[in-house]
Specification:
The chain is an alpha/beta fold. It contains 8 helices and 8 strands, in the order E-H-E-H-H-H-E-H-E-H-E-E-E-H-E-H. 48% of the residues lie in helices and 15% in strands. It has a 5-stranded parallel β-sheet with strand order 2-3-1-4-8. The chain has a 3-stranded antiparallel β-sheet with strand order 6-5-7. It binds adenosine monophosphate. Adenosine monophosphate (AMP) binds next to helix 2 and helix 3.
């Protein structure tokens, strides 16, 4: 299964991708996670991406495409993958098709996690991420058992620097400028299924699993 999760920041793509990856035994590929790792390791790519990410803008297509192409060379993707955070515009969707074609595979299903703006803002401004295992929590909706500590691995929880209200609104605007053409592209290719992702994460997970069956 070569699955793409599409939706605004805060739609729950990361949360769903992690759960699906575990359930289906597939690698979870998040371009945001790979970029953040590059930033924290201070790589050349990370240095170029840092300021852009802090402003809530998109890292140039070419840089992200190169990074993704490299990731798709890893042997684990032979089983399939769950892609989260890519594509973010029509050019990236076409690049993805080209990269996969060279590897003899194609996107099977695109699940669009449709989410309303107030839900996005509430989810992201309260989101807490584990610095060790990447698990997500929320100050109100899903608080950790002990304040600031991950339930799973006891890692320290932090708030992403782009999860403040101002940057969240910018990210939403960037997303909206691009999403219509992406949705149209996958509709035409008959790969798109839409879900209401304002609903509880467990309900949404069940619906995605049904779509992949
Ligand atoms: P995410 O973790 O998916 O919310 O991504 C965090 C940030 O990483 C975004 O706001 C962008 O700055 C950057 N980013 C992630 N994926 C992409 C992509 N496909 N194209 C361009 N920039 C990206």
């Amino acid at each position: 299964m070569h699955l793409v999760l599409l939706g605004p920041p805060g739609a729950g793509k990361g949360t769903q991708a992690k759960r699906l990856a575990e359930r289906l035994g597939l690698p979870h590929i998040s371009t945001g996670d790979i970029l953040r790792r590059n930033v924290s390791e201070g790589t050349e790519l990370g240095k170029q991406a840092k300021g852009i990410m802090e402003k809530g803008l998109l890292v140039p297509d070419q840089l992200v495409a190169q990074m993704l192409d490299q990731r798709f060379n890893d042997p684990d993707i032979r089983k399939g993958f769950i892609l989260d955070g890519y594509p973010r515009n029509l050019a990236q969707a076409k690049t993805l098709d080209e990269i996969l074609k060279r590897k003899g595979i194609a996107v099977d299903l695109v699940v669009y996690l449709d989410t309303s703006d107030p839900v996005v803002v509430k989810r992201l401004t309260g989101r807490l991420v584990c610095s060790k295992c990447g698990a997500n929590f929320h100050t109100v909706n899903m608080p950790p058992k002990a304040k600031g500590v991950c339930d799973n691995c006891q890692g320290a929880l932090y708030q992403r620097s782009d999860d403040n209200e101002e940057t969240v609104l910018k990210r939403l605007q960037v997303y909206k400028n691009e999403v219509a053409s992406l949705i149209e592209y996958y509709k035409q290719n008959k790969k798109l299924s839409s879900l209401n992702a304002d609903l509880d994460a467990q309900v949404v997970l069940g619906q995605i699993i049904e779509l992949t069956a």
